[in-house]
Amino acid sequence: MSDGQETIVRSLSFLNEKFEEMKVKTEKLEKQNKELQAQNSLLKESVTQLENRLTDLDQYHRRVNLEFVGIPETEGENVKKIVVEVAKHADPNLAEQDVDVTHRLGPKKEKGGPPRPIIVRFTTRCARDAVYNGRKNLRGKTKNQRLFINENLLPATRQLLAKANVERKKADYKYLWTSNARILVRKNSDSPAIVICCEEDLQKIK
Fold it and tell me: How confident is the model at residue 12, as a pLDDT?
């Protein structure tokens, strides 16, 4: 074998060794990448579970709350007294001690602006439910006919509710309401209720 051929053979042998080294390194990196992807997937799942638990916990703390919307706002008002008077139209058996905390939501509005909603925390879930279930009794019994009693929903649920209301109107569904922070729609009084848990569920409204 000539010197030139030996040189070529040595070069090929060197390149083959380097190729094998690179192959081993590549396989090692691919294995590490797969392990990292698996760890990342587990971390994402853990974060999602934690977020869901926090969301459930937040909504759980709101379980004895209601929002009163549309009550006129006046300077120096006694919010609790006003709330109790209105709530009694929904549940005549309500006592003042059934209402724990009341306050207007958000910064004070400019003169002429809409009244701020009132967050109401009841002392028991029973008292809260009695007022919420009797909210239809407010019709014709209050000076302000645009008064509503709503559940104290999380921002994300509130946004989904607004989107469901848009789709409800498009599809000519008559009823939209919430129960224990769940969004429900119904075509008419004879049709079954549809639960809306996420945006994909909006496709059910047809």
Answer: 65
